[in-house]
Sequence to fold (380 residues):
Amino acid sequence: MKIEPGGPIPVYLPYLGAEVHAAVDDALDEGWLGLGPLTARFEQEISSYLELSGRYTVSTNSCTGALHLASLVAGVGPGDEVICPSFTYVAGHQAVSATGADIVFCDIEQETLGVDPASVRSLVTDRTKAVMAVHYAGIACRIDEINELAAEHGLRVIEDAAHAFGTRHRGRPIGSFGDLTCFSFGPVKVITSLEGGAVITPHETDVQRLHELRLIGVTDDTDARYKRGRTWDYDVVRQGYRYHLGSVPAAIGLSQLAMIDTFISNRQRYCRIYDESFQDLRDVTTFDTDFTDVSPYIYVIRVPDGDARTKLMEHMRGLGVASGIHFEGAHNYTFYRDCRRSDLSVTERISEQVVTLPLHPFMDESTTDRVVASVRSFFE
Ligand SMILES: Cc1ncc(COP(=O)(O)O)c(C=O)c1O
Fold:
């Protein structure tokens, strides 16, 4: 899809150029569609991009699946509590509640809109098993403090890095340190494999378990069984799920990974253009970052709560510029409204203020100009 002059500007627009089409054609020509060598290659390339050393990448067909499997290998189950921000996508909450554990909602802090370590601390009990730390919009949360707190209380940390593939923290890529990290390669993420995800673990003992969990409990993948010439010869050793990543999505992921440096530097540039263009607007708050180490997934501004946000979004829509809201706060959803929680006043306020503007891997000047004008003309 191309943006026509004056035509609609969507919030997301994945790059699906010639390289991606060629990768699909090649993968189809190979004739092996399931979990196979291309999946393994995608995992190797992810490990190398993330500069992993002594850590392992296990791909999945979504980040939701990755978060579910990470929760399981962290030992999360019925009777346990997992502390999660309410201000995140419900995929994380669903992954935890699928294990039978109880979700406990913590608040976020203003600067990164990631988990507030003080709020997490206030919620820890002897039932707490893990904390889910989300790197919102690609901006690293206060992960060092969360890791310290977790070490103090013997908790596992599941990093939801669905937004943060390529973000660096203290000079190291997210995923290259810490406990369990999950990424998304969903349709609109920084790189896409159409649908896809990955768990990064530092524990070699997790790898076989993750492989079984993602392949309905089966001990050997089909590729290995084909190579042995006995595809029917396997054992089933646990309850598992159908979460593995097939060859065609892996091939798309590989073609996107080859372009990630361009995607990230472009997105950083557009974020800086936006920041600069809004800096004199009293009613618009932006993140306090120059995006140097950030792999930006969404560009989010905050505007005064109340009518202003709805009116701004309507005004932008009238000018052909789409916008979004990430996120509304999961503690208000029917399924989660009885969950234990800390004070959620930052979540309550921020979720009324955030507006997501269009951010694509490739945007021409007229597109960013139109997005800027659609916001400025509302406030001026
Ligand atoms: C914070 C967060 N976590 C997890 C997910 C789930 O990712 P996936 O769509 O790959 O399952 C998303 C999806 O947008 C997300 O925003």
User: Anything to note?
Assistant: The chain has two domains: 18-257, 260-379. The pocket of pyridoxal-5'-phosphate is lined by residues 62-64, 88-89, 91-92, 134, 160, 162-163, 184, 186, 197 (CB under 6 Å).
